[in-house]
Amino acid sequence: MWDDVSAEVVALGFKTILLDFPCHGKSRFKGEICTMAFMANCVDALCKVEGIANPFVFGHSMGGYVGLELLKKRAIQLTLVHSNFWDDPAPKKKDRNRVVSIVAQNKMRLLNEAIPNLFATKNRDNCEGTIRDLICEAETIPSAEIIASTKGMRDRLHNGKLFEMYEVKMIHGELDTVVKTEKLNEELSLLKNQPNIQLIKDAGHMSIWERPHALMKCIKTNLGV
């Protein structure tokens, strides 16, 4: 999903690494629960092998959860992209369990329902081809791995305390129904240190396709260029 953004960032003189987390893309996983901490361990191991120190990390959605766990392990310059720092409240945990049940019975029902809903209603027609491609790509992921990563997100920790120790930036979509603005503001009010938040207007959870130029502008700002 980051290919186009990566090309622009490379053109600015940066090196980029695009990751397929376990249970995603070409990275497989065997186990019942793929935790955010496990994924962060994988990224940390990669950083050690590649000799990467204090990188910029842009974590979209679940990638932001992994980024917060990685922040506990090493120095990074983290931006949460359409992501959050709190644990799942009870209704959301119930919804994750519903996802697990649906995927176990009919994966395509879940994909056809969930993926379009990541996009703001007003943007779905323009992103119709992308939505179709994402559904096709997600279809190739084994059901057991979708279940494992869903359980990992369900069981993740509240990481608001990290904002007291580190600078974490956030990029948020005005029309995001996954990370709702009302809930975001509620959780932010509980933090002692307020993060820098960039708002992308007319974007849902997928500004990378809904408002790519606005997202790139935010990324450049956070890279200091």
Write structural notes for this entry.
The chain has one domain (3-223): 3-Layer(aba) Sandwich (Rossmann fold), CATH 3.40.50. The chain is 50% helix and 9% strand. Helix 3 links the parallel strand 1 and strand 2. It has eleven helices and four strands. It has 225 residues and is an alpha/beta fold. The mean pLDDT is 97. The longest helix is centred in the middle third of the chain and has 16 residues, at 90-105. Strands 1-2-3-4 form a four-stranded parallel beta sheet, with helices on both faces.
Rg from alpha-carbon coordinates: 17 Å
Q: Kindly, what is the distance between the CA atoms of the first and last residues, rounded to a whole number of angstroms?
A: 22 Å
Shape: globular
Strand coverage percent: 5-15%
Helix percent reads 40-55%
Strand order of the largest sheet: 1-2-3-4
Which architecture name does CATH use? 3-Layer(aba) Sandwich
Return the average pLDDT rounded to an integer.
97
Looking at CATH, the homologous superfamily is Alpha/Beta hydrolase fold, catalytic domain
Q: Report the biggest beta sheet as strand number plus sense, adding barrel if it closes.
A: 4 strands, parallel
Low-confidence stretches at least 5 residues in length (pLDDT < 50)? none
Q: Regarding CATH, which class?
A: Alpha Beta
The DSSP helix count reads 11
Task: Tell how many strands the DSSP assignment holds.
Answer: 4
Class from helix and strand fractions: alpha/beta
Provide the number of structural domains: 1
CATH topology: Rossmann fold
User: Which H/E pattern describes the elements?
Assistant: HHEHEHHHHHEHEHH
